[in-house]
């Protein structure tokens, strides 16, 4: 399937999804939970393992001997210690946990990077991205599917320029990541809000009114009776979204809605790991302190076997 066919399929699938009368679209960007396991260290450290490594990576440690787990953990600690001062601080640990939880984002960027760095110079220019993404479809001024690819390209160019901090229209891998996943970067949040408002603001007055808000997440499709969740969303708009009670959401109100200030689970977990491992109570960790407490951070055959015995006894 070439790019044009893919975009046609995507637009049709999107239209189909939006036509379902009870399907709910969620615009809100929440920080993901660190683990779906219960955080109870008295029972197991599974939650901490998932938080520290990411759930998929944590599973790989369960197949290692304790010695192998300690060795791999030691190598990870060297990566966490960003300033190479021999200590791991709460902030460094928090940054690592956030990286581990969002590893899929970086894997996605790596995949896309290979298809867009056409001259293989370690950078992606706007021209490279435009040619790789829109080169084929822009040759046809009147595509059969009626999809406005030029409008999409203009929007992408605006976002690319926002991600490109030095304004040279050439993205480093970090800038390219901000372009592909703007919700993950503070300096990109305004563009996330702007794009969201453009999607929902059908009358182009620069605001989102109640009917536009509901219309974005629910299609009546001829039905007069709304589901309960739609009635609840109407109440949410009036009571909480529209803070100044003028009947519509402006830019700041929209930002508060789609980019809420969530509880920082990564920081809480980082503080917990430091507290439990900091033998001399200086507020930071050495590699030795972390490796000594390795079973808190990572699993192994020993911990996996021990937890299996606990589960067997409980059964």
UniProtKB/TrEMBL annotation:
Signal sequence region: 1-19
InterPro entries: EF-hand-dom_pair, EF_Hand_1_Ca_BS, EF_hand_dom
Key word Signal present: yes
Compartment annotation: Endoplasmic reticulum membrane; Golgi apparatus; Melanosome; Sarcoplasmic reticulum lumen
Segments passing through the bilayer: none
Domain of life according to the entry: Eukaryota
EF-hand domain: residues covered: 68-103, 104-139, 151-186, 188-223, 265-300
Keywords: Calcium, Endoplasmic reticulum, Glycoprotein, Golgi apparatus, Membrane, Metal-binding, Repeat, Sarcoplasmic reticulum, Secreted, Signal
Matches recorded under Pfam families: EF-hand_5 (PF13202)
Similarity comment: family membership: Belongs to the CREC family.
Protein name: Calumenin
Taxonomic path: Eukaryota, Metazoa, Chordata, Craniata, Vertebrata
